[in-house]
Design brief:
The complex is a heterodimer of chains A (374) and B (364). Chain A is of the alpha/beta class. Chain A is built from 16 helices and eleven strands. Chain A has a five-stranded parallel sheet with strand order 2-1-7-8-9. In chain A, strands 4-3-5-6 form a four-stranded parallel sheet, sandwiched between helices. A two-stranded antiparallel sheet of chain A has the order 10-11. In chain B, helix 4 runs parallel beside helix 5 and helix 4 packs parallel to helix 7. Classes of the chains: A alpha/beta (374), B alpha+beta (364).
Chain lengths: 374, 364
């Protein structure tokens, strides 16, 4: 398949891995920001082609994973209301709140629907004027323009039974929070290509300079990631710290002006709580006052503070790249995709889920190993 | 790699007996209700079988966990199976609930190495279903049965209140005769066996999803819905020493291989680059964040055969329209019991695991 197969080519991957090994003289720790990249790394085994000196740590770029429990609890509460059709991207259905998830709400009779685009939720609101249609707006800057478009459409058509629970977050403040942390180990970043398709990468230039950290705008295919790592290691070895664009087939420096205008028209920058990272100033998007009528929190009440995450779960450390999923005592034992303690175990882009799915022995095999190796 | 992927059981060691109830990481009683995912062909469904159905009905025929039960009556060997069909929409590109209900049960019999003979058909109809719809479905069933040489010999009809069904549910059961001495079953799989796949994967699941969710792709993706008895019977007739057959349904190729690896207490190794996926399905999967390995099929199967017979088997399969893309995708080895590994396109090996339930489309 064009634009896919050539980025998954075994020989090309081998050559790129050899090039990385050739430029590497010291240990380096590189963080990929996006959960899509984490998933590709673990699925294709990109990390296993790298020299031992290169450590990849997985960043907070899974929007499902960083959505705070309070907001998920609020979503569950709204979704259970009899007058509500609750719309969400599929990823979100299994993410646990304090006590349950959206799939459980659905099993109990809640009208929970998977949509592929926020505009689909607006169409549902048109078709069901007797219902309140609520869209769970989750995601980074990548999905924010589509959400903004839904608000503008609902506003233009004067649809009053549509609202959204907004949990949008922005990448650069989270990167800065990681770089500024006292225990930071990250020496270079692979920035999320799709976020940059929308936002461009001028914001990253300030970060790269301020923290003397190379940032490579990187795509999602195995060869993209290997190429991004090569560019990052080369900068680190040469003592440079600039922004480079590996994903030039999709990303321009200024991003998409049209998409940015949509975001600016509908949203304003707000402080946001990140699951695992805590509160980060100016890291979220909230509806502007003129669109506040579409805010589900205004319509259904604010989110109550949630109980703390179960203590065994180290998802915060995983999301900051301080620990790997298998280092968690609960990994694969008390925390599985069926009974997740933290969101990274359930989302398709979560680091814990990726390790469980592609690296972890199924329970059956584990038992076999225990029995044969007492 | 930091995990135990390299740990192997040495050839010759006795493989331990499987105790599914002891290794389940999430006991079923943690779910006080049935979730949709319990029917998704993934890990939750497996838990449901292990903790509810198998303990309740345990017997040697059921415990074999084959697509159908193989019953011996004197000198006669029969295969017996049943399946229910709840697909929405009722009509989709490449098939409909009627052809699916006939072919699905034929395929379960074929996977036992049986010649499908007789089917039953049970209809649960929701009040208000247009008569014309039912007529179309029944006609489709007649055509599918005729094409495969089976007869629908008994049936049942129930009508439920409006809102208590989803238009139409169909159950079919089937009986077939086994006319050979092969033992075709998961635990007949041997180390060294070659694994053949009858064609490209993922078409049925994507065709249904595209239609159900109103996703428009440039070209229509057609379901692979087909009866598989003819190629299987020809393999048997030609003297291929088939060890195991499995049609790929919910849970896709991944679930089928994992089930066989577990039942056979062997390891299965496949190669991603050898598994055919048509461009339209690949594109849809890329877009939605789905893995074709886990997407449903209705007209594909895998065959486990001795390596020496690969070429002969492929020659036979490729003469049949429903298997003309047949190919070799991997091998069986002692390795770790119950494990399936896949060599990724860039040459690194990883584990293939069951999903919890159905795959959910991603955010971005």
């Amino acid at each position: 398949m064009k634009f896919v197969d050539e980025y998954r080519d075994k020989d090309a991957a081998g050559r790129m891995a050899a090039a990385i090994a050739q430029v590497t003289t010291r240990p380096w720790t590189i963080m990929e920001i996006c959960g899509g990249q984490t998933h590709a790394i673990v699925k294709y085994g990109v990390d296993q082609l790298l020299p031992d000196a290169i450590t990849l740590v997985h960043g907070p770029g899974c929007p499902v994973c960083v959505t705070p429990v309070e907001l998920i609890d609020k979503a569950l509460e709204i979704a259970a209301l009899p007058e509500v059709i609750f719309c969400s991207f599929g990823d979100m259905l299994r993410v646990p709140g304090s006590h349950r998830d959206l799939l459980t709400v659905k099993a109990n009779g809640g009208d929970v629907r998977v949509v592929y685009a926020p505009l689909d939720a607006v169409k549902l609101a048109q078709r069901h004027p007797e219902k309140q249609v609520v869209f769970f707006a989750v995601g980074f800057e990548t999905t924010a323009p589509a959400t903004a478009l839904a608000v503008l459409q609902a506003n233009r058509l004067n649809i009053t039974n549509f609202s959204m629970l907004v949990a949008h977050v922005c990448v650069p403040p989270a990167m800065e929070s990681i770089l500024a942390a006292p225990h930071n180990q990250v020496q270079g970043f692979l920035a999320a290509g799709h976020v940059c398709t929308v936002m461009g990468y001028t914001e990253y230039e300030t970060l790269a300079q301020r923290y003397q950290t190379p940032i490579i705008v990187t795509g999602f295919e195995p060869l993209d990631i290997l190429h991004g790592i090569y560019l990052c290691v080369k900068q680190l070895e040469e003592g440079r710290a600039t922004v480079e664009n590996q994903y030039a087939r999709a990303v321009r420096r200024e991003g998409s002006r049209e998409a940015q205008q949509l975001i600016t028209e509908v949203f304003e920058v707000v402080p946001r709580q990140w699951r695992g990272l805590g509160a980060i100033a100016d890291s979220g998007l909230g509806l502007r006052e003129r669109y506040a009528g579409f805010d589900a929190v205004r319509r259904f009440g604010t989110a109550a503070p949630a109980a703390t995450t179960p203590s065994e779960c180290i998802s915060g450390l995983v999301l900051q790249g301080v620990k790997k999923p298998q280092e968690c005592p609960a990994f694969g034992k008390h925390c599985t995709p069926e009974q997740p303690l933290g969101a990274p175990m359930v989302s398709t882009e979560g680091a814990c889920a990726a390790y469980y799915r592609y690296r972890h022995s199924p329970p059956h095999s584990r038992a076999t190993l225990q029995e044969t190796n007492p | 790699m930091t995990d135990d992927i390299d740990t192997v059981i040495e050839p010759g060691l006795v493989r331990p007996v499987i105790e599914p109830a002891l290794v389940c990481p999430a006991p079923i009683n943690q779910h006080s209700q049935i979730l949709l995912a319990h029917g998704g062909g993934g890990r939750l469904m497996q838990q449901l079988l292990d903790s509810v159905f198998l303990p309740a009905f345990a017997n040697p025929l059921l415990n074999a966990r084959h697509d159908g039960a193989v019953i011996e009556l004197g000198a006669t060997r029969l295969a017996f199976t049943t399946d229910s069909y709840v697909v929405q929409p009722l009509f989709f590109p490449g098939g409909d609930i009627g052809s699916l209900a006939v072919n699905g049960t034929i395929n379960d019999l074929a996977m036992c190495g049986a010649r499908p003979l007789f089917l039953s058909a049970g209809f649960i109809i929701e009040e208000g279903l247009p008569m014309e719809t039912l007529q179309r479905v029944v006609t489709s069933m007649r055509h599918a049965a005729h094409a495969a040489g089976v007869t629908i010999v008994t049936g049942d009809t129930k009508v439920v209140d409006k809102g208590k069904g989803d238009g139409l549910f169909i159950n079919t059961a089937g009986i077939g005769s086994i006319e050979h001495n092969l033992r075709i079953a998961p635990d007949a799989v041997q180390p060294g066996d070659a694994i053949l796949l009858s064609g490209d994967i993922g078409r049925h699941g994507i065709a249904i999803m595209a239609m159900r969710e109103g996703l428009d792709f440039e070209s229509t993706i057609e379901s692979d819905c087909a009866a598989l008895a003819a190629p299987v019977l020809e393999l048997i007739h030609a003297g291929i020493d088939i060890h195991c057959l499995r049609d790929l349904t919910r849970g896709g190729l991944a679930a089928a291989l994992i089930e066989i690896a577990e039942a056979a207490c062997l390891q299965i190794d496949i190669e991603e680059s050898l598994i055919p996926v048509v461009q339209e399905v690949q594109g849809a999967c890329e877009l939605l964040g789905l893995d074709p390995l886990h997407v449903a099929n209705e007209g594909r199967f895998v065959a486990f055969i001795p390596s020496a017979q690969v070429n002969q088997t492929l020659d036979i399969l490729r003469r049949h329209p429903q298997a003309n893309q047949a190919c070799l995708i991997g091998h069986v080895q002692h390795g770790t019991a119950g494990r399936v590994t896949l060599q990724s396109r860039i040459g690194v090996r990883r584990i293939v695991d069951r999903l919890s339930g159905e795959q959910l489309p991603r955010i971005c």
